[in-house]
Amino acid sequence: MSDSFDFLRKHNILVKKENSIFAEICKHYNMSYADINMLDAIYDRNKITEPTILAEELLIPKQTITSMLDKLEKKGYVKRQHNENDRRKVNVHLMPKGENLLLQVQKTIDFAENYIMENMGKEVLENMLVQYNKIIDLLEYVISKEVKND
User: Fold this and answer.
1) CB contact set of 26 (below 8 Å; sequence gap of 6+)
2) How far apart are CA 72 and CA 76, in angstroms?
3) Which residues contact 68 (CB under 8 A, 6 or more apart)?
4) pTM of the full predicted structure?
């Protein structure tokens, strides 16, 4: 096993652990991490978007988005309506109940983020993000080259 593969493997383990911590936070609110990510994606799009955009942004198949939206709509967190200009399109609206839940979850995450920042420092965290972006850029570049050579 090469050093670079070991690095990516260790990184993947850390990402899984981080996601598991976020999933535990969401479970406290009787939600899945994927559901909270969905509400967050809608919120980021000014509380209205389309299922296709959600599927692309969250990297989730369209049929999975539909079942997730069904569940969120039954709970009163989102509402789907046909687009006024194009009846073939559906708009997803974040309802006040969904926004309130999302903001509660975000408050917990903000508390954790502030704790981390107090213990590590904002500059260290910002530098970490810059370095992480470089890693992603390099990974995308080298994988695109490798795929073309296969």
Assistant:
1) 32, 33, 35, 36, 105
2) 6
3) 34, 35, 38, 60
4) 0.82
Residue type, 140: E
Are 105 and 31 within 8 A, CB to CB?
Answer: yes
- Pairing type for strands 48-49 and 90-94 reads antiparallel
**Which residue is associated with the tokens 């899945």?**
32
Minimal CA–CA distance to 88: which of 32, 50, 141, 121? 50
DSSP state of 31: -
Q: Which two tokens stand for residue 53?
A: 């955009």
Based on the number of CB atoms within 10 Å of its own CB, is 147 exposed (0-12), middle (13-18) or buried (19 or more)?
exposed
- Convert the pLDDT of each residue in 103-115 to its tens digit: 999 999 999 999 9
Please say if the pLDDT value at position 1 is more than 60. Answer: no
How far apart (Å, rounded) are the C-alpha atoms in residues 96 and 132?
A: 35
